[in-house]
Amino acid sequence: MAGVASRVSAYIKETMGSIRSIKLRHIMNQIITLGIIMSSAFIIWKCLIHYTGSESPVVVVLSESMEPGFQRGDILVLHMGSAPVRAGEIVVYNVDGRDIPIVHRVIQVHQDRDSGEVAILTKGDNNEYDDRGLYAEDQMWLDREHIMGRSVGFLPYFGWATILMTERPFLKFILLGVLALLVIISD
Amino acid sequence: MFLKWLIMRSWSLKSPCIEILQILVEIPLIKIHSSVVSVAPSFSVQAFRLEGMHTFLYRLNAVLSFALLALAAICIAASMTDMIHKSNPSVDIKVLKFDGLREIYGNDEARVALNISADLSSIFSWNTKQLFVFVAAEYTTPKNSWNQISLWDSIITAKEDAVFQALEYNKYAFIDQGKNFRGLSFNLTMYWHVMPKTTMMYIGSKSFTGFKFPDNYF
């Protein structure tokens, strides 16, 4: 009787042990894979920041103010560069007291002879008037500190994924759910 | 069973190459191992299989990465053709007359009539979405080493519209940072910002020198 019990318990222990080792290995594998994916994405992002000199090297166009050149959902690639900003460039700038940066074209530049500082005025190609109405109260010019990046290239439509996911959060959950499901059911 | 297989296949049919390869591998195996098993059920088993090398995820991943790679290659190719694209735009800018020069809130403001004519049609390439054309006054003052004021602009979306003439007053305010306009000489430069259908943007320009403001307010 005792022999049977010990044999059964040994069998259970063995089975449990093998199941546990498989599961543990499997879970660890998936965690490592996920970690690699996330860290490589992070590395690419940081490298882009370093090479472009812009704190957000890729931005998505949200408004219609630069139509028909840039449409909602286009992705802009930014590069800071050390050369002073000149008229005609399309810059991304931040205004104090505003959360969302703006992508507009530079239409006026005044560069101080002594300090080398530039005073910049911008305007959206599709807007009637210049951007003084968008700036902070009593702000006449943008300085270098306001400029987040200068656009060098763009990709059409690719930003729609981001727009949809920020404006319809449930899509994000659906996507995450489907991905999680696929990870679970696949080996 | 076959219908199920068809549905699964149409759902997961993303990489025909892999499928065909698989069929090529599977058929001889079936023939060797059992002569009674028909072909369709073995495929259905194949389609439902979720582990191993040929899962739906693997295929989706392969197709998506290949699509992205192909798109990137096409984008780079488009930029390259833009780089070798040669153009010879012809531009002419004249100041017709000054229609006012005054001081406003401590700054000088001028009103000027321009005659702008250009043929920029050769700039258009197959990757050009539009040209953003503008004319800027450029000058230096004792305080500023560089001043640029856009006076007029236009968006050209078609090659046919790239030959134009405009007789217009300055569209945007021509206001200095200070009071330096009287008797000052300045340049007028036409810039064309080439906005592509995809990838690289670039700017071209042509300058005209020897313009001069009137010597007195009027």
Can you walk through the features of this model?
The complex is a heterodimer of chains A (187) and B (218). Chain A has 187 residues and is of the alpha+beta class. Chain A has helices spanning 2-52, 160-167, 169-185; strands spanning 58-60, 75-79, 90-93, 102-112, 118-123, 147-155. Chain A has a six-stranded antiparallel β-sheet. In chain A, helix 2 (160-167) packs across helix 3 (169-185). By secondary structure, chain B is of the alpha+beta class. Chain B folds into two domains: 2-83, no CATH class; 87-212, Immunoglobulin-like, CATH 2.60.40. In chain B, a hairpin with a 4-residue loop joins strand 3 (128-139) and strand 4 (144-156). In chain B, helix 1 packs across helix 3. The A-B interface holds A 68-70, 84, 86-90, 105, 107-113, 116, 119, 123, 125, 130, 151-156, 182, 185-187 and B 50-52, 55-57, 75, 79, 129-130, 132, 134, 136, 142-150, 153, 155, 157, 172, 177, 191, 193, 195-201, 203. Chain A: InterPro entries: LexA/Signal_pep-like_sf (IPR036286), Pept_S26A_signal_pept_1_CS (IPR019758), Peptidase_S24_S26A/B/C (IPR015927), Peptidase_S26 (IPR019533), Peptidase_S26B (IPR001733). Chain A: Keywords: Endoplasmic reticulum, Hydrolase, Membrane, Protease, Signal-anchor, Transmembrane, Transmembrane helix. Chain A: Residues 51-138 form the Peptidase S24/S26A/S26B/S26C domain.
**Whole-number radius of gyration of chain B?**
32 Å
On the 0 to 100 scale, the average pLDDT of chain B is 78
In terms of DSSP E residues, the strand content of chain B is 35-45%
**Which class of the largest domain in chain B in CATH terms?**
Mainly Beta
What would you call the structural class of chain A?
alpha+beta
The CATH topology of the largest domain in chain B: Immunoglobulin-like
Unreliable spans of chain B: 1-50
Oligomer: heterodimer
CATH-defined architecture of the largest domain in chain A: Ribbon
CATH T-level topology of the largest domain in chain A? Umud Fragment, subunit A
Main sheet attributes: strand count, strand direction, barrel closure of chain B:
4 strands, antiparallel
Order of helices and strands of chain A: HEEEEEEHH
The total beta strand count of chain A reads 6
Structural class call of chain B reads alpha+beta
- Identify the CATH homologous superfamily of the largest domain in chain A: Umud Fragment, subunit A
| Count of helical regions of chain B | 4
What is the C-alpha radius of gyration of chain A, as a whole number of Å? 27 Å
Strand order in space, largest sheet of chain A: 1-2-6-3-4-5
Shape of chain A: elongated
Keywords (chain B): Endoplasmic reticulum, Membrane, Signal-anchor, Transmembrane, Transmembrane helix
Organism (chain B): Ceratopteris richardii (Triangle waterfern)
GO biological process, one term (chain B): protein targeting to ER
Pfam family, one (chain B): SPC22
